[in-house]
Specification:
The chain has eleven helices and two strands. It is mostly helical. Helix 1 runs antiparallel to helix 10, helix 6 packs across helix 8 and helix 9 packs parallel to helix 11. The protein is globular and about 65 Å long. The relative contact order is 0.19.
Length: 288
């Protein structure tokens, strides 16, 4: 393989891994830690993309727009947790049904407000050339953003008092309440943080994906596959699964077509779950 082709493939692969990390990180917290199956996760991504789109159109710098999207979707997630999710803890099937209904409502609401047409943001930074191969320079932004978000979540859950309380509230809720932890507040903040990560991911993906009410449907399946293949370790498992599945997807897509890349990702996820039913981190001691 020529050096320019190898460099282009490496950057493309890192971009694919970063996209999976971005779309799955918020879900890993909500599903992996809270055991809530949020079928509206894709719509949270979509709302983040729309917020970023209209912020940029209003003259707000793109980096600030991503932060605004995270805050808006995070607050929306807090409202959803207070009004809906808090009544459904421990009721997995009811949670799935409620969040599926919420996703339908969100899509139709956005269609009624903004219409069904596809909108887009210009992709910044142009292209990076490796000989006869060309890769979007924005890939570097996605890679850097994925690293920053992973580091931020790792620090928050392992180096702060909130992280200790959050893990206690998820793993031993009764014991946490006995020692004075307000599990209701902690659950609300954790769900809101997972939602904020989804909003930021949607904003970051807006320049490379069509901003349309149904855009979340293109990411929700890959997000769930990444989290489930990753297993019980929320961060290390999700990161490992994103690395493996993203590498399979982008390598096959680079060498053939995107259709075969996505098919290869699905096949890889099925084979991994068949061989390791508890995921990549299933044999580890449960950790973050």
């Amino acid at each position: 393989m020529a050096a320019d082709q190898a460099l282009a493939l490496a950057l493309t692969t890192l971009t694919g891994i970063s996209v999976l990390v971005l779309v799955a990180l918020g879900l890993a917290i909500i599903f992996g830690m809270m055991r809530i199956i949020n079928l509206a996760h894709g719509e949270f991504l979509m709302i983040g993309a729309f917020v970023a789109l209209y912020c940029v159109r209003a003259g707000v710098p793109f980096a600030v727009s991503v932060l605004v999207a995270a805050v808006v979707v995070g607050l929306f997630g807090v409202a959803v947790e207070r009004l809906l999710i808090q009544h459904l803890y421990g009721r997995l099937e009811d949670t799935m049904l409620a969040t599926w209904g919420l996703s339908l409502i969100m899509v139709q609401a956005v269609v009624l407000i903004f219409g069904a047409s596809t909108r887009g943001l210009p992709t910044p930074l142009g292209n990076v050339r490796f000989g006869r191969y060309s890769v979007s320079g924005y890939s570097l932004v996605l890679i850097g953003s994925a690293v920053v978000m992973l580091a931020l979540v790792f620090w928050l859950f392992t180096r702060t008092r909130y992280g200790t309380m959050a893990r206690a509230a998820m793993q031993l809720p009764e014991t946490a309440m006995i020692v004075g932890i307000n599990t209701r507040t902690v659950n609300m903040v954790t769900f809101g943080m997972g939602s904020a990560l989804a909003g930021a991911a949607g904003a970051l993906l807006a320049p490379v994906a069509g901003v349309v009410p149904s855009m979340g449907q293109g990411y929700i399946a890959r997000a769930f596959m990444t989290v489930i293949v990753g297993g019980p370790a929320v961060l290390t498992g999700t990161t490992a699964a994103a690395a493996l599945l993203g590498a399979v997807d982008r390598t096959v897509s680079f060498l053939s077509t995107q259709f075969y890349g996505q098919a290869a990702l699905l096949i890889a996820a099925i084979v991994l779950l068949r061989l390791m039913p508890t995921g990549l981190s299933g044999r580890m001691r449960r950790q973050l």
